[in-house]
Amino acid sequence: MSTARTPFKRRITAGIGIAALATSALFGSMLPANAADVGNINADTPTSLTIHKHAQPAGPGAEHNGTELETAPDSAGLVGVTFKIEKVTNIDLASSEGWAATVGLTPEGVKDSLEFVDEAPTGAGGILTFDGLQQAVYLVTETGAGDNNVAFAAKPFLVTLPLPNKEDNTWIYDVHVYPKNSLASITKDVNDSAATSLGDTVNWKIAAKVPNKSADAPLTKFEITDQLDPRLTFQNATATLASGTAIVEPTDYTVDASSGTVKVVFTAEGLAKFATDETVNVALATTVTTLTGDSGIITNNATVFTNENSFTSDTAQTNWGKVIIRKTDSVDQTKNLKGAEFQIYATEADAKAGNNALSVTSNGVKSAVATSGENGIVTIDGLRATVNGTDEAITYWLVETKAPTGYTISTDASKTKPQSFTVDSAIDTTVDITIKNAQTPPFMLPLTGGSGTAMFMMVGLGILAVAGGVAMRKRSTRRTSQA
Known about the structure:
Layout: H1 7-30, E1 47-52, E2 54-55, E3 82-88, H2 96-101, E4 114-121, E5 127-133, E6 136-144, E7 150-152, E8 157-161, E9 163-165, E10 170-172, E11 174-177, E12 180-183, E13 185-191, E14 201-209, E15 222-227, E16 232-241, E17 253-256, E18 261-266, H3 268-271, E19 279-288, E20 297-300, E21 303-306, E22 309-312, E23 316-329, E24 341-345, H4 348-353, E25 360-362, E26 365-367, E27 370-371, E28 377-384, E29 395-402, E30 419-422, E31 430-437, H5 451-482
Parallel strand pairs: 1-11, 2-12, 23-31
Antiparallel strand pairs: 1-5, 3-4, 3-6, 6-8, 7-12, 9-10, 13-14, 14-19, 15-18, 15-21, 16-19, 17-18, 20-23, 21-22, 23-28, 24-27, 24-29, 25-26, 29-30
């Protein structure tokens, strides 16, 4: 038996058929050529998470979808940065409710529902892979910087395994992420070439790399500090930017050395002037005022503070030492001679010509002339020992310019033959130099009973003979007159 259909029923049936065809065409057009890559999640497919750890580039970088980049980032891969992954236990990705719960989820919202899975450092190229992971939501946290000067650690982040690929509606089972770190660094060098003795200036250069900021890691603090060795006295400090942008004190930065620690602190105005990949240079001038202890090695380093992190430079040093000159008799060296005057020169040519004598601090007085005291000693309170804190020793030349009264200038420390010496600061801060002086030669006196005495006797006898002759002549003249 056939059933007759009314026009209204036929129209409804046709509409449903058209809608079905349209729906089929719509979803059919979304299917890729490989049906295995789309559709429902394959619960049996293993998942993994690979972390590529790099330094923060100059720019913000492109948004990433979880697949491995064909070209690695230009910035350096960071080895030794540690990451921890934890599974979120209250979300089941095998259900639609679980996936719905991931919408708007934050790391703060899962802190009470975490199960530790693994923790490891990045390897070569800054790469770390966690294999064989269950399909779940994971919290990834950076827990250690290793040997890297990480100024801003990567923020904790959530990731689902598998991860939806919004570009083609597929599922990514092996997810790649590229968290970045902003790096800071600081170096310190010394230039003591202008210094010779106590009271002279030693210059230090501090270079601090400014970390590249990002939207997640703004730079709110940048400060350089330098705790001076007690033997150094602060003169001044000036900051400049490697980019060439002008900065001035105190608008852009302030300098404070009142506590013995030099602090260069950037203001909000100064922070705003930092260019990408900026470096702050600080020129610090100090004076070596005294030498104490058993070493003349003066070390110094600097620290940079970026937000809540700090990094310290390698140690720079300037090497100094004391010199003692002992003035003694050349025959009896227990006899100390006062009043000898000395000058010190930087070159042998200057010493021989008597030009450019160095001004040194001797017995507390700074002068180009050092004089031996009652004990015959000249103490040079401090001379620079090496070039810029290296092992390259500096040679000085000693000349005695005036001998003690009654003595002659030593032939071992004269303009003709200056005495060279170096200063030892690594083991003993005192260099002991002994300069011997001979007495001025006396006149030659006649020897008792010698030819000198015989001569005097002959002269005396001659005088007596003359006197006798004169007496006899007078007597003869007297007799003649009487006759």
